[in-house]
Amino acid sequence: MSDNTCRLCPRACNADRVKKAGYCGIKNSPDTVRVAKAMLHFGEEPPISGSRGSGAVFFSGCNMQCVFCQNYNISKGCFGKDISVSRLAEIFLELQDKGAHNINLVTATHFVPQVIKALEAVKHKLYVPIVYNCGGYESTDTLKMLDGIVDIYLPDVKYFDDTYALRYSGAVDYFFHAKAAVGEMLRQTGKYEIENGIMKRGVIMRHLILPSLYKDSINIFRAMEEYHDRLLISLMRQYFPCGRAEDFHEINRRVTTFEYRKVLDVCSELGFEGFTQEKEAATDEMTPDFDLSGV
C-alpha cells in the first residue's frame, strides 16, 4: 500500500483507507489497527488451544462480509477500538505472559502491514508460534509478506462454487484465490509439525459446512486432494443461523447429521486427517463476548 490504495485482498478495492473505509469497512492510518478483543481462547482446534489457550486477537472488519457470520458485530459492524501498532505489540507480549501457546491473528488480512510492524518490534521477546486465522479469501502477494513471520495458517475455505461465494459472501473467484492461498501457505510452512500435542508449524484447513451445501463441501475436498498429506483439516459443524441468514431460507437452519456425515466420509476416503466437531458445537456459546477486554 505504498501509494495508500489498498490491494491487500483479492478484492483490490483500491480505497485510500486513510481517507475512507475500504470494502472491509475499516478506515485507519498506517500506524493503527482496530481490535475488538484479546483473550486466551480455548475454542480452537486442540493443538492450537492446548491446555493454556490460544492468544487470540480479534481484529475488526472483514473482506468477506458473510451473511451468516457468527462475529457479525465486529466483521460487518466493525465494532472495536482503534489502537496503535505499539499497543498491538504490547498485547502480543501480554498474551504470551498469560501462558498462550501462540499468538492468534483472527481476521487480520486488512491489517497485515501493521501486524508485521508490531511483530517485528517484539520478535526478540516472542517465543511462541504466530497463527494467521482467516476466511481463505487471500492474496498470495499479501501472504508472501508474511513468509518467515507466520508459523501456522488457519484458512477457513468456504466455497467451491462461485455461485454460493457470491450469494453468501459477495466474493468473486473465491475458490481460485482460496486454493492458491492454501498452496502458498503450504509452500511457506511445509508439512504440519506437532510437538507434545501443540502445533508448531503448518496449515489446518478449516471448512464450515453450510446447510444444503454439503455437495459443494465435498467438491472443495476433492479439489484439495493433492494437499491431503501435508495439511490437517478441521471439519466444522458449528453453523447456526445468525447475521442475515434468516433472509436466505436454504441456510436458515442447522446442518443435519446426514450432511455432516456425507462430507466426513469423503474426507476419509481421500485420506485427509484432522479434527471434527460434535453437533453440540452449533451454538452461540462458541462466539466470544466482544467487549474490548484485553485491548
Number of helices: 9
Secondary structure: helix percent:
25-40%
Order of helices and strands: EHEHEHEHEHEHHEEHEHE
> What spatial form do the alpha-carbon principal axes imply?
globular
Report on the structure:
The chain has 295 residues and is α/β, with parallel strands linked by helices. It is 29% helix and 19% strand. It contains nine helices and ten strands. Strands 1, 2, 3, 4, 5, 6, 7, 8, 9 and 10 form a ten-stranded mixed β-sheet that branches. A hairpin with a 2-residue loop joins strand 7 and strand 8. It is globular and about 50 Å long. The two termini are 26 Å apart. The model has no long low-confidence stretch (mean pLDDT 94).
List the helices and strands and how they pair.
Blueprint: E1 32-41, H1 46-49, E2 54-59, H2 72-75, E3 81-84, H3 85-97, E4 103-106, H4 112-122, E5 130-134, H5 140-145, E6 152-155, H6 162-169, H7 174-189, E7 193-195, E8 198-208, H8 214-223, E9 232-236, H9 257-269, E10 274-276
Helix pairs in contact: 3-4, 8-9
Quick gist of this model?
The protein has 295 residues and is an alpha/beta fold.
Main features:
295 residues; alpha/beta; ten-stranded mixed beta sheet; 9 helices
